Amino acid sequence: MAVRTAERIASQASTTRTRAPRPVVPPDLRISDNPAAAVLRSATTGPVFRDNTARVTGLSIATVNRQVSALLTAGLLRERADLTASGAVGRPRVPFEVDIDNFGTLGVHIGSTSTRIVVADLRGRILGGLTIATPQTGQEFAVKTVAHSAKSFLQRWYRRTPLWVGVAIGGRVDPGTGVVDHPKLGWREAPVGAVFSEVLGLPISVAPHVEAMAAAELLLPGVQPDPADVPEPAHVHGSSLYFYVRETAGISVTLDGRVHTPSNGPGSIAHLPTGSEVECQCGRRGCLEATVGDRALHARAVGRGIVPAHNGKASSTIGDLYRAAVGGSEPARELLADRATVLGRTVALVRDMLNPDRVVLGGQAFTTYRPGLAHVARSFNEATVLPPTDIRVTGYSSKVQEFAAVVTSLSALYADPVAALRRSQA
């Protein structure tokens, strides 16, 4: 009897070990005060010396030395003996940097119509990626299809050790479980975290995508692909409003180096009234998303004959509207100017409510058609009742979705690198 019981317990334990997925870990969207994290962050922009790191981080040189030794042992940092400072008295000064060759993370941004999958190094630089259509045939099939596509793409990077998976997605996200409600996709309690964890066998973090975009501005300022828009070093103190529009619209607030993550999920600006006559699926008219979202704008362009419904054998897209405007189509320019005017007025409304220290505009509604920014600025200035503020367009341009996924995949590592590495390798 005792033998059979022991055998049954052993069998159950074996089954549990076989089936147990890697954990779903809430993303940590903040500048961490963990000493190891501060040292790692100091080395993400290139080789640095220990004394410089101590000065930048405010840590003692003894603490910096301990953390550097621990991170070197873990393999997250590497020394650059070829850059040793010559002529110095005493022990040679050997700089160190983040190891960008041996590890990688997988980032996935699941959008309403398309999904982007990328692999990044520990500095946050994207090494490669692909775009697939987001399946529209039910949440179970869709989540599994995207997870297996991500796994297939990750297998191309067999020379790197994958540490983490980050998924950024719209809708409401439970960061502790990775469960997602996404009305536009028709998903309800979709087990995104559990499915990705089971398919990929890696720890995973799932974040609301606009909050992740705000975190990218905070944690990855050195990898913005548009050098004309790279901001000053990230503001740790004060507040920022991140305003995003593409297919969906959303906002996020950063306070003193931490992205505000409400316990009940992010707020919504999708149904803010704009004064337009566009009908929304909710039954009202003039809702923000129905007025300025890409799909709605494209539908109006087709309805007005500005772009054809089909471009050759395929359906036309919002890109055809942008190309028509650049090509000189006055109706296309007017339609985009109208959207930009609504955007500027709405940004002013939200900014006046929250009164942040700075405003960042992200998403293709702002970045793809640059002439529209003049209309955004004019409308904003006419609508706001507060003094001028620091307002700019994100430097991530059309890659903002990818970097939202990247920062989600790196957030645990950037918050506590040694613990995250231990969890990944457990």
Features:
426 residues; 41% helix; alpha/beta
Please state the average pLDDT score: 89
Strands in their spatial order, largest beta sheet: 5-4-3-6-10
| Binned strand content | 15-25%
Radius of gyration: 24 Å
* Poorly predicted regions: 1-20, 228-234
How many β-strand stretches?
A: 17
Structure description:
By secondary structure, the chain is of the alpha/beta class. 41% of the residues lie in helices and 20% in strands. It contains 15 helices and 17 strands. The protein has helices at 2-19, 35-42, 50-57, 61-74, 139-154, 192-200, 209-219, 288-292, 294-303, 318-326, 330-354, 364-367, 372-383, 400-415, 417-425, and strands at residues 77-79, 96-98, 103-110, 114-120, 126-133, 161-169, 172-174, 179-182, 187-191, 204-208, 239-245, 249-255, 258-259, 310-311, 314-315, 358-362, 390-393. A five-stranded mixed beta sheet has the order 5-4-3-6-10, with helices on both faces. Strand 4 (114-120) and strand 5 (126-133) form a beta hairpin. The chain is globular and about 70 Å long. Mean pLDDT is 89; it is low at 1-20 and 228-234.
In short:
This protein has 426 residues and is of the alpha/beta class. It has helices at 2-19, 35-42, 50-57, 61-74, 139-154, 192-200, 209-219, 288-292, 294-303, 318-326, 330-354, 364-367, 372-383, 400-415, 417-425; strands at 77-79, 96-98, 103-110, 114-120, 126-133, 161-169, 172-174, 179-182, 187-191, 204-208, 239-245, 249-255, 258-259, 310-311, 314-315, 358-362, 390-393.
